[in-house]
Amino acid sequence: MSLDQATRARAETLREQIAQHNYQYFVLDDPRIPDSEYDRLFRELQALEAAHPALVTPDSPTQRVGGTPLGAFDEVVHRVPMLSLENALTADAMAEFDRRVRRRLDRDTEMTYAAEPKLDGLAISLRYQDGKLLQGATRGDGTRGEDVTQNVRTIAAIPLQLRGRGWPRLLEVRGEVFMPKRGFEALNRRQREQDAKTFANPRNAAAGSLRQLDPKVTATRPLMTFCYGLGEVEGHPMTATHSDNMALLQDWGLPISPELQVLSGLDGCLAYFAAMGARRDTLPYDIDGVVFKVNTIADQEALGFVSRAPRWAIAQKFPAQEALTEIKAVEFQVGRTGAVTPVARLKPVLVGGVTVSNATLHNMDEVERKDVRVGDTVYVRRAGDVIPEIVRMLPERRPADATPVVMPANCPVCGSAIERIESEAVARCSGGLYCAAQRKESVKHFAARRAMDIDGLGEKLIDQLIDQALISDPADLFGLSVDALAGLQRMAQKSAHNLVAALHDARRTTLDRFLFALGIREVGEATAQSLARQFGGLDAIAAATEEALQETPDVGPIVARHVHTFFRQPHNQEVIAKLRDAGLEWAETEPLAAAGQLPLSGKTFVLTGTLSEPRTQVKERLQALGAKVTGSVSKNTAYLVAGEEAGSKLSKAEALGVAVLDEQALRELLAAATPPTD
Ligand code: 9MJ
Prior knowledge:
Blueprint: H1 3-27, H2 35-51, E1 75-77, E2 87-88, H3 91-105, E3 112-119, E4 122-129, E5 132-138, E6 144-146, H4 149-152, E7 170-178, H5 181-193, H6 202-210, H7 215-219, E8 224-234, H8 242-251, E9 261-264, H9 265-279, E10 287-294, H10 297-303, E11 305-306, E12 309-310, E13 313-317, E14 322-334, E15 339-351, E16 354-360, H11 364-370, E17 373-374, E18 377-381, E19 389-393, E20 403-404, E21 418-420, E22 427-429, H12 436-447, H13 459-467, H14 482-486, H15 493-506, H16 511-517, H17 525-535, H18 538-543, H19 546-550, H20 557-568, H21 570-581, E23 604-608, H22 615-624, E24 628-630, E25 639-642, H23 648-656, E26 659-661, H24 663-673
Parallel strand pairs: 2-13, 23-24, 23-25, 25-26
Antiparallel strand pairs: 1-6, 3-9, 3-10, 4-5, 4-7, 7-8, 10-13, 11-12, 14-15, 14-18, 15-16, 15-22, 17-20, 18-19, 21-22
The protein binds 5-amino-3-(furan-2-yl)-1H-1,2,4-triazole-1-carboxamide (9MJ).
């Protein structure tokens, strides 16, 4: 074999391997090699093609991003129209669909349906001629769409060349281009960092990305595709059922929904719909319902279609997660740290099956941005467990007497002045623990499961205890008697006993839980653990300067200031003393910081080259173990961590005799230095 033939063969092998790994990854969702290995194959092929341009083929994986930005998209006429789907909003409407199908087919047995989640993206047509991707087009109005071939080619999940054999000479597949949730979040994060426009939802992001005139931009967008149907097919028959056709497409390397199932009758459809609804939030992409299709192609043909929609398919939609309602009033709620939040009281409305009568307006900046007033008609949205929120108002429905939302000058609970720091969006009640709302919230936080975990001390009970002045701070809880508790609403003698016992047991705790329970601003569980580990004891934390606090991993200047300030407030000192008098106790340990005992204390690291994870992440991990991370190599540097393509810092380290770690060596060093978690 001449060198040329060997090179040609190598390029061919690389292309096949890359195509195979793409198939494993995107179609079978079963990657066989790590990304780094895939990148290596890809780079080898790129290098070969760069050295021998004659080796480049149009369907080479290196040729996905090609061409120059377009001025506009060409028009594409769909010879087989791209249909839309009829919607069913209820189980009754589904039953009606099933009845209609069977009546038309004169069938009294159960129908077989193919089901898959309804993706919320953009419909696309992909034309393959002799197995090669020839054209990608948007749906447009169903008859005329836009030629987005250059962009479609950049979507890694879409094969440029079909696998195997036996494909029709002309094969047009239909599918949905969408953006998975994680990719969407990463894209918006990137857009924000670059001060570019963010997208309201994954659907808009997918549409915006596919309709870019410059394919280089599309190539940076995390788009995915599932194929769900056929358009024009010539030269070879497909199979007798939708599900077998989809299996064929998958064999040919086209991605289809991993959720595709064949079901029996209406009951099968309704069960699938319920199961998909329950799994909806855990899927890696947004769906807005389920699509059911009559599975037998001959039946589909017999049913035909009406105007734009097939009679053999239906989309059962999940109930809307957004609904229209009216703002009856806006009230202001005071949180544990005094933050004053505007909350809209709504005319109750069903949102995704749950009655919503309150929604948060977050802060006054949001109120102004959304321009909402009392009396406005607004969209409310509910998602998962989060508090419902107002999405936007409908200006055309604003009544003449709508009243603006005004932040009160004084706390609605304690009357203290409300302050707003210029640089913060949040306004706060200045009453501190004088404010009953703040006291209630701080006791609730103290008693919560992740803090002191006091069984049987619920929110309603805490409200009563504060309102009736039986307690005024968390320490008073430990002085409550069974008699005092038994006098409260919904409190029997037995539960009063149990609560007193639970309070007694809660006195034995750990330093990190106790610190978290104190409710210091910006001190969450992780920070509390860090502080506990760093200082070992409460008195050391209370006495620490802001600088000393900042030595703690995870603690920056803002957190350090909050901690420092907290321990200097006389009423906080009093409450802590009372808690100790009440018998609260925890084990204290040797301070790590004072003894310079963090495993990497006193060691300076420099990071250079390309690492497989973000540099800030590596840096934080090192700092958490006490290391210092600086930007330039000197004789004081303990280690240089060198990723790929490390440059001048590596030469300098070598010249100075500084130890150099590759990523593997760093991983080993980190593993050895990381204290076991308890
Ligand atoms: C979506 N959007 O997921 C169809 N679709 O079938 C699925 N859309 C469809 N099928 C015929 N899975 C017309 C549209």
